[in-house]
């Protein structure tokens, strides 16, 4: 069942200056694969997200893996073009406390960027990230801070 943690989003928005935040709780999870032993949990947004002239369509998804890997998949557009969507993903526990952030794979940066050069074009945004694998079982929701 998809649900949005609005109280957590409000807290994250208050903590993140000039970066509106939205949250998602787990939509699905899987037991460890027999061949790899890696579990996964997906966090799906059941509504569109906007900031400035930019929009992420309904259905954006972060998938976390128990080995500390993460994958983002979304469709994003801009009404103006020559834009970029900036996103930071924070991992929260069941009390809304920040556990950590997802970092861009191979980097220490927590800022994910999707360029949107043309107005009204729909772009597929797929990004790989990483997080502290020790946090996997504690993650209850993900909050996205964003800017366009």
TrEMBL record:
The keyword Signal applies. Residues 1-23 form the signal peptide. It holds the Pfam family DUF6294. Residues 61-148 form the DUF6294 domain. PROSITE patterns: PROKAR_LIPOPROTEIN (PS51257). Keywords: Signal. The keyword Magnesium does not apply. This is DUF6294 family protein. It comes from Nonomuraea marmarensis.
């Amino acid at each position: 069942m998809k649900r949005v943690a609005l109280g957590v989003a409000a807290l994250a928005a208050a903590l993140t200056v000039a970066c509106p935040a939205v949250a998602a709780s787990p939509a699905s999870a899987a037991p460890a694969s027999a061949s790899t032993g890696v579990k996964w949990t997906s966090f799906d947004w059941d509504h569109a997200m906007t900031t400035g002239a930019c929009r992420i369509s309904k259905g954006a998804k972060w998938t976390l893996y128990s080995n500390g890997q993460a994958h983002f998949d979304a469709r994003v557009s801009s009404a103006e073009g020559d834009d970029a969507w900036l996103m930071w993903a924070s991992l929260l526990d069941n009390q809304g406390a920040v556990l950590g952030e997802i970092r861009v794979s191979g980097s220490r940066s927590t800022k994910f960027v999707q360029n949107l050069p043309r107005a009204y074009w729909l772009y597929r945004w797929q990004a790989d990230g990483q997080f502290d694998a020790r946090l996997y079982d504690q993650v209850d929701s993900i909050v996205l801070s964003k800017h366009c």
